[in-house]
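Homework help thread (please don't just give me the answer)

Our assignment gives two proteins as sequence + structure token strings and asks us to describe the second one. The first is just a warm-up. Here they are:
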Amino acid sequence: MARKTIFQKLHDTEACHAVCIAQYPLGFKDAFIVMMRTDVNKLNLYGFEEDEENHTLMTRDLNDVEYAEFKRREKLYQKTMHSDVGRVYELKSNGFRAWYKSKKSRTRRKKAV
């Protein structure tokens, strides 16, 4: 059986994630996936690194083949942010931003109790 790609795994499980595409002044692009640490561990995904600014998030850079796969599946995503520094896409069926905000507020409530 062929090994599943990262996007096949994410879509099969409907895992909450965002795809970020950073744009640099000289025309370079950097694409990566952002997910919650708990989801990365639960799905046993490889290649993710802890985000330097927020330790509950993990990121994974996309290579050229994975970026091309994202572009083929782009219709499954909605653009949630677009600026001169880049774009952020999230699944239409499972938005990362709303999920992350609700998770963050639940965590704050637990700490307050």
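The one we have to describe:
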Amino acid sequence: MRREFIAVFLIVLIAAVAYFMVYTKPWITRISVLYPEDASDIFSELKARFEDGNWFTGVNLKTYTDGEHIRESLDLEKVDVVILDHVDVAEDLRREGYVDWFIEYANRSRSVYCIAVVKGSAHQSQALEFVRFVLENSKVYSSLCTVVTPARGFGDIPEELQQLVAKYKVIVDWANRSVAIPENIRRVVSLVPVITVSIIMEGAGDLLVGVDRISPTSEFL
């Protein structure tokens, strides 16, 4: 009788441990990704694809609705990767010390999607792995938005991502409007408001930049 009890107890214990292991998957490191609510279709698909091919890293998705919510989440929650919906917002977070760099990789409607690893993330290597996956698998979301090719990197881009991006920087005009230009342009002769965006004498090293009056983030023609 005692042997039967022990056998049943062991069977139940093994089943409980097996259930715990399968359900919790303690060997998986989970990273937290904060993204704008209107990009749920993109990141639901990215999460599924990333986890299908990765046995050791999982993704917890969190959404935000506005700029203030971003800062609140970054201050109060443990966030590893953040997605911004505008270059200006990403640049502000970089200047405020939330991130050291960001990468513009896609756009849709009025949103310009930028991705970055949060400064001080406890899972830096896994977060960088996810960023690399997003950049290298644009086919996953190419039908949902316009992919920026090559992706534009701002700030101190990590060495392992540098081959995937073209380096850019943000400059601001007299009306506090910003425009992104290639980082290798060393001197800006003038930044003036015009109807269309134009670059003059880029090859010669001097540059005249115009910012669209209606859309300061218009791309160069």
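TA reply:
I won't write it for you, but here's a hint about the kind of observation we're looking for: The chain has a mean pLDDT of 78.
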